[in-house]
Amino acid sequence: MEGKTSEPPIYYKLECGVSAAELEVGHLYKVAVAISPDGTKILVFFDIHPDPKAIGMSCDIESERTAAR
Fold first, then answer.
1. Spatial separation of the C-alpha atoms in residues 59 and 12, rounded to whole Å
2. What does the radius of gyration of the chain's CA atoms come to, in whole angstroms?
3. How many CB atoms lie within 10 A of CB 46?
4. Would you tell me how many other CB atoms lie within 10 Å of the CB of residue 20?
5. What gap in Å lies between CA 33 and CA 11, rounded to an integer?
6. For residues 28 and 67, what is the distance between their CA atoms, to the nearest angstrom?
């Protein structure tokens, strides 16, 4: 019988500027890692605005690390 394996969590240090006010501590967000047009690695947050026309926001990733559970 195969056991279910899971990826270790990834911890990010982000630079969001004034957009950080849109995020709430302890809230779960849909996110994706992407590369901006200038080549910067960013984390894109989806569905954070109540307005359905607003797609989301992004933050620059300053650093990331993984940790085994």
1. 10
2. 14
3. 13
4. 11
5. 12
6. 19
Using DSSP's 3-state secondary structure scheme, residue 9 falls into coil
Tokens (6 digits) for 8: 């270790």
Residue 11 Cα distances to 1, 46, 54, 64, angstroms: 31, 18, 26, 5
In three-state secondary structure terms, 20 is: helix
CB 31 within 8 Å of CB 38: no
pTM for the model stands at: 0.68
Q: Are 32 and 46 in contact (CB under 8 A)?
A: yes
* CB distance 5 to 52 below 8 Å: no
Question: For 9-54, what is each residue's pLDDT tens digit?
Answer: 888 899 998 888 888 888 888 899 999 899 989 999 887 766 666 6
